[in-house]
Amino acid sequence: MQIVNNSQQQPAQRRGGCLRGCLIGLAIYFGLSFLCGLLLGDMFGPSKVKLEDYSVYRIDLEGELVEQAQEANPFADMLGQMPMSSYTNTKTTGLDQILDNIRLAEQDDKIKGIYLHGGAMSLSPASAKAIRDRLLLFKQRSGKWIIAYADNYNVTNYYMASAADKIYLNPIAEIGWHGLAAQKMYFTRLMEKVGIEMQILKVGTFKSAVEPFFRTSMSEADRQQTLLYLQGIWDEYRAAVGASRGISEADLDRYADEGINLQAADKYVEYKLVDTLVYRDDMDEILRIMSGSKDYKLLGTSKLALVERPKAKSPNRVAVIYAEGEIVGDDGDGITAENILKQMKTIRKDDQVKAVVLRVNSPGGSAYASEEIWHGVKKLQEKGLPVVVSMSDLAASGGYYISCAADYIIAEPTTLTGSIGIFGTIPNVKKLREKIGVDVDAVGTNKHAAMSRSMVFNGMNSEEQAMMQTMIERGYDLFTRRCADGRKMTQDDIKKIAEGRVWLGKDAVGIGLVDSLGNISDAIAKAAELAGIESYDVNYYPEKKSPMDEMMKMLRGEQSEEERIVARLKAYAKEPRVLMLMEPVEIK
Prior knowledge:
Blueprint: H1 6-43, E1 55-60, E2 64-66, H2 76-80, E3 92-94, H3 95-107, E4 111-117, H4 125-142, E5 145-150, H5 155-161, E6 166-169, H6 188-194, E7 197-203, H7 220-245, H8 249-257, H9 266-270, E8 276-277, H10 283-291, E9 297-299, H11 301-304, E10 317-324, E11 327-328, E12 335-336, H12 337-349, E13 353-362, E14 364-366, H13 367-382, E15 387-396, H14 398-401, E16 408-411, E17 416-418, E18 422-428, H15 430-436, H16 451-457, H17 462-487, H18 491-497, E19 502-504, H19 505-510, E20 516-517, H20 520-531, E21 537-541, H21 547-556, H22 561-574, E22 577-581
Parallel strand pairs: 1-4, 1-9, 2-3, 4-5, 5-6, 6-8, 10-13, 10-21, 11-12, 13-15, 15-16, 15-17, 16-20
Antiparallel strand pairs: 7-18, 14-22, 17-19, 18-22
Helix pairs in contact: 3-4, 4-5, 12-13, 17-18
């Protein structure tokens, strides 16, 4: 017989009941939120917008620019506030939407002009040029106005804003007109302290993505190529701003060297970088005057995208496939071979599709996945579909691998491309495991049965290193052969411009890696020309995710940066990675 002390049991029961109540409450909260999403998403999802007179297209130069916009999720804010939610509602804007909206603003008389607001959007030079060029075309074709206002401008956003007829600036703001720089971090000494040695196998003098793991500063080759492409981008910025603002390029260099970004805002007016200093709330009156009405309507990018466009009428289609991010295997974020090949298979089965544009924005990635996507491009061509590549900010290393088989390649002048090289990285954690007291032993049926893990836990011996280097060189030979075949060049000629070297799009034309300069619209027109069709509509792949798809993704929770790092380390431990990757460099 057990005697129970009720005075001790009751608090425990209360705690258990409280815990159960909390869990039930959370379950009800999530359940109701999900149910509301299902019902309201269908009933009150994004509806079409009707344009009114005296409308103004407002382009917010804030947040992050991505290649392809997704459908707006009306429940994002609610889900971001859920308990234990890892979702962060970072504002993203699609380059495709901005360009399409500018086209609509040009053609519809109800839209009186464009207002560029803000100046800290995260984007690369090639995307900035694509927007700027379209703004200039908008002014030329429509005769309508563009004005710009920001509290602060970074250099790339100011380059975009310089397309405006008038630039307004906050009186206590700054313009980051100080030139361009690329700063890299090196981890060699840190890894030595921890006890990890990164074993590097590579082909390509300029292949710098692995330098942070065995150097403490830039190699001379990397310093040379980085400075060259930075100077090329700065030349574009300086020439474009000078032409729009009526300032000599020599003066623009002088302003940058003076540290103009740290001087009083009056100096920006004196130097003609801006027209007028005003506060944000003063822009309302300016917009009233410019639009011709006190009741003007501001429409942002996502709102204007809901204005109904003419529906498809042509039996001919040009398919545009977006390939954005790092090239990975069959799972993970970025360009997965499985998803791209699935889209290509769908396109091959559609008899209305007459040509394909592959829109590439990638620093590269997995050698295996790159070869798979290359083969997918060849199968499109076997079906009789011409393939045109449109390069965005980056089409480097594996990004160039998946491009090289195309019938025609178009890049922006400031696209970073090439980087034709290959490397493998295998961490050696022997010193670390000895430091923390971990021993490893193994048994196997054959000499190299445990090699993939032994290289990580004990390091490579000379025989293993030789075999791995041979594999890397074999991969480089295949890479250069694919490029030579695709570009109708000899393999020796490709190797002269390869070695992992990064090229600007405008320089890549002269050496045969790219056919011409232009944007995605030029690529679509070229694809139609190669297919011999004059009228066509455009289909985009992958299809945009619905708000419900996005909500389910948020409910599952995004993978954190720490989780991604752990996943990569686990992949390293399983097998060495052979990569064709250009290290993404933030240009400031």
